[in-house]
């Protein structure tokens, strides 16, 4: 009897706490901005998130697509918005690359990272029929003849990782850039490229069809769904990366807004329905709290700027 | 057989048939509005597909694509403004037929050629999905480079009078194609510090400016009475003799449409220009091309509707969208959690077969919906010029604005319009500019990518058999069209001599 009473009390308190959180959130409607078009990667991520986030946060959550300029327009929209927790932007490495490459009026430095939600593992893959059994084989080939390594886009995390791998392995490989992952996939499948770099979820259908094989991952630890695949670091080359998916807002976000998100996102990631949805979409949760995320984005920006300068893309 | 029963099952148990018809009607409208490309017309529907079942959603989008590829020819014929990029080739002879009072016939030819193209494309999609996707796989960067060069070689015979002017116009297009992100280094080129130019200039903006806005300028500049187009207010299908004459052009259109559809990046625009060109090359009535040839309407309109079906082949078998329209279609699949790629035939077979069935319904519905919407369209063109021009300008601007809600795009369209006006005055052809713009990036990126692969060694282009084949065909085209005037002169002189002897 006592136990039941306690349970009821706890439930009531929990409800009250939730109610309080709902009342605490300073605005009624939260707009999540993305530069990707309807149906694109970040758009799907946000729409799925918005569906489950509303009740947890205690506000209506809507998604707005601000296209153009690879995120430059979306960043300008954010900077012009009030820092009251009503507008956030879906961050991926793209927003840092755009900031550094094209000098838009508003850059990532004008925004305040909020929290990180997911991280997409970047992996090295090869055609299923190729002779490469490990990353060592790939490097060995690059040592004796001309290695051909593919990255989806010229100014991208993928290319940065390959340049770093090239330096770490001390080889001269041709790093071939493309106009997107699909374009590169053909060149991996037909043997033009030794290896390609991409996100696991982009490879999903080719993996299921056993057309490609993953050789190594750029993650810090092995990924759960591919337990037999070593990390690049285990293979002997110290290159690790996190392709982040999180949120950022205008500068000067209030404490209570940050606290509300730091509470809502970890809860949301545990929500069984949402978990089923994002697991099916091959997203891997990686919550990073506010303070840590600010430092992380800052370091990511500094590293990227250095890479872009070293490779001669920017001055 | 399982395929047919599954397709039938989807058609009977879901509202896919209804959405196929809605899609065609919406597609014709969107295609007919200059500035709304098929991909934009489809993208406008995307938000509505969230709540549909997967098969209906995909069918709705694919049917819109089919409708839009036909709809683009309506303004091309009636007001000399291609409603879609792929209808640009239809302008040449379609508008000429209109001027000769045969608008109803031109529209009828376009409509039934579109239906034939859609049906042939669908047959290709169903039957050749796997073998053709193997061809796409053997395309390496040098092959794509050569494909682009082959496309450019068409300029030699598209230039009308002066080859030099044609080449200048083409270079203009190639120059615009270099604006944006460098394909190899990722640096910015010619963006003048504007974020709006980062992603490059969208061909549709330049096309709308060159074709539509400059036409409005020319009409405004014309003094005195307007030439009123006496269009018959009824759609007219060709008689048996003419229909028979159109068959070779339609076969050429569907063959080229099939190939271009399968190759990512080529798309309906290249297909319609190439088939226009080939139809002229093989025609018995070459002299009519440019002067209102019915074949000049049938070939590109068959081709672009064939592409609307065959462009789905690389999407289904590799998950690779070869064009903006198929990228939107991919978005439709993703919304419903379907991974597009080799496994789709195993995991979501019923959706794929439902798509086939829905496209069949849409192709047939195109004939009837196209006829039903023809009357209002022809009525529209006979309104007083001043009102009509104002209406077209409003349509162009609202259509262009709806793409990115960008004022910058409107400025680009106006600039392109002014450039187009100057080109018209100086008698430069537009088509090479458009080809340069469409193919420039494909050629440059694959040329440089090939050299990165080979470490700067140009022999990579000779080691790729597909590239060698394409380059050889391109060389034959260029030399052939250069020799043609000389050959024609020689022939007519000989004929003259024979006559002299007889006389």
UniProtKB/TrEMBL annotation, chain B:
Q: Where is the signal peptide?
A: none
Q: Keywords assigned by UniProt? A: Membrane, Transmembrane, Transmembrane helix
Q: Which organism is this entry from? A: Jiella sonneratiae
Q: Identify the residues that the record assigns to the DUF112 domain, covering every copy.
A: 18-435
Annotated transmembrane regions:
7-28, 48-68, 105-129, 141-160, 167-185, 197-218, 327-346, 352-374, 386-401, 430-447, 467-490
Check the record and name the Pfam families matching this protein: TctA
Protein name listed in UniProt: Tripartite tricarboxylate transporter permease
Q: Does the keyword Iron-sulfur apply?
A: no
Tell me which domain of life the UniProt entry assigns to the organism this sequence originates from. Answer: Bacteria
């Amino acid at each position: 009897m006592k136990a039941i009473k306690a349970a009821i009390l706890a439930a009531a308190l929990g409800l009250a706490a939730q109610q309080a959180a709902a009342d605490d959130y300073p605005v009624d409607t939260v707009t999540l901005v993305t530069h990707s078009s309807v149906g694109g990667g970040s758009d799907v991520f946000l729409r799925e998130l918005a569906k489950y986030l509303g009740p947890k946060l205690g506000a209506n959550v809507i998604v707005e697509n601000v296209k153009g300029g690879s995120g430059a327009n979306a960043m300008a929209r954010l900077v012009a918005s009030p820092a009251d927790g009503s507008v956030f932007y879906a961050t991926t490495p793209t927003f840092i690359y755009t900031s550094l490459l094209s000098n838009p009026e508003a850059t990532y430095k004008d925004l305040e990272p909020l929290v990180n939600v997911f991280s997409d593992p970047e992996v090295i893959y090869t055609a299923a029929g190729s002779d490469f059994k490990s990353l060592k084989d790939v490097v060995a080939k690059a040592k004796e003849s001309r290695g051909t390594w593919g990255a989806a886009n010229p100014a991208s995390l993928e290319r940065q990782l390959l340049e770093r791998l090239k330096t770490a392995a001390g080889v001269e490989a041709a790093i071939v850039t493309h106009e997107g992952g699909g374009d590169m996939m053909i060149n991996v499948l037909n043997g033009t490229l030794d290896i390609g770099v991409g996100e696991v979820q982009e490879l999903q259908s080719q993996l299921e069809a056993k057309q490609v094989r993953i050789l190594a991952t750029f993650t810090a630890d092995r990924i759960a769904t591919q337990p037999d695949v070593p990390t690049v670091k285990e293979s002997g080359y110290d290159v690790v990366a996190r392709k982040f998916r999180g949120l950022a807002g205008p500068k000067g976000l209030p404490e209570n807004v940050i606290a509300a998100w730091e509470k809502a996102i970890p809860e949301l990631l545990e929500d069984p329905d949402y978990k089923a949805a994002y697991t099916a979409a091959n997203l891997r949760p990686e919550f990073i709290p506010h303070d840590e995320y600010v430092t992380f984005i800052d370091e990511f920006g500094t590293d990227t700027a250095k890479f872009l300068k070293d490779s001669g893309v920017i001055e | 057989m399982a395929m047919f029963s599954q397709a039938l099952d989807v058609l009977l148990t879901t509202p896919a048939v209804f959405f196929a018809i809605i899609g065609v009607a919406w597609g014709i409208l969107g295609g007919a509005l200059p500035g709304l490309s098929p991909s934009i017309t489809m993208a406008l529907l995307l938000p509505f597909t969230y709540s549909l079942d997967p098969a209906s959603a995909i069918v709705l989008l694919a049917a819109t694509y089919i409708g839009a590829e036909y709809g683009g020819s309506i303004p091309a014929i009636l007001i000399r403004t291609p409603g879609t990029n792929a209808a640009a080739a239809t302008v040449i002879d379609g508008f000429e037929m209109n001027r000769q009072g045969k608008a109803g016939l031109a529209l009828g030819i376009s409509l039934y050629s579109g239906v034939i193209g859609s049906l042939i494309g669908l047959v290709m999609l169903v039957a050749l999905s796997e073998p053709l996707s193997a061809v796409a796989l053997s395309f390496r960067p040098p092959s794509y480079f050569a494909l682009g060069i082959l496309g450019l070689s068409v300029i030699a015979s598209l230039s009308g009078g002066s080859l030099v002017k044609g080449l200048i116009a083409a270079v203009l297009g190639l120059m615009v194609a270099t604006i944006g992100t460098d394909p190899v280094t990722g640096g910015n080129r010619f963006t003048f510090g504007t974020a709006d130019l980062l992603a490059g200039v969208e061909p549709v903006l330049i096309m709308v400016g060159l074709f539509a806005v400059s036409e409005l300028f020319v009409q405004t500049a014309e003094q005195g009475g307007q030439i009123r187009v006496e269009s018959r207010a009824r759609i007219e299908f060709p008689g048996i003799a003419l229909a028979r004459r159109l068959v070779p052009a339609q076969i050429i259109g569907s063959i080229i449409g099939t190939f271009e559809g399968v190759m990512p990046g080529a798309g309906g625009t290249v297909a319609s220009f190439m088939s226009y060109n080939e139809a002229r090359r093989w025609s018995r009535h070459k002299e009519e091309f440019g002067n209102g040839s019915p074949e000049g309407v049938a070939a590109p309109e068959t081709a672009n509707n064939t592409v609307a079906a065959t462009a789905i082949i690389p999407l289904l078998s590799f998950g690779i969208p070869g064009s903006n329209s198929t990228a939107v279609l991919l978005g439709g699949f993703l919304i419903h959690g379907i991974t597009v790629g080799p496994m789709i035939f195993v995991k979501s077979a019923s959706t794929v077969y439902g798509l086939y069935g829905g496209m069949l319904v849409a192709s047939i519905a195109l004939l009837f919906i196209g006829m039903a919407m023809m009357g209002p369209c022809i009525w529209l063109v006979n309104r007083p010029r001043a009102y009509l021009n104002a209406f077209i300008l409003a349509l162009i601007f609202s259509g262009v604005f709806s793409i990115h809600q960008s004022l910058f795009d409107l400025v680009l369209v106006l600039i392109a319009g002014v450039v187009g006006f100057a080109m018209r005055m100086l008698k430069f052809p537009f088509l090479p500019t458009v080809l340069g713009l469409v193919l420039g990036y494909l050629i440059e990126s694959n040329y440089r990518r090939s050299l990165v692969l080979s470490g700067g060694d140009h022999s990579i282009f000779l080691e790729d058999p597909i590239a060698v084949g394409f380059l050889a065909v391109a060389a034959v085209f260029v030399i052939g069209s250069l020799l043609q005037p000389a050959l024609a002169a020689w022939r007519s002189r000989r004929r003259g001599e024979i006559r002299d002897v007889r006389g």
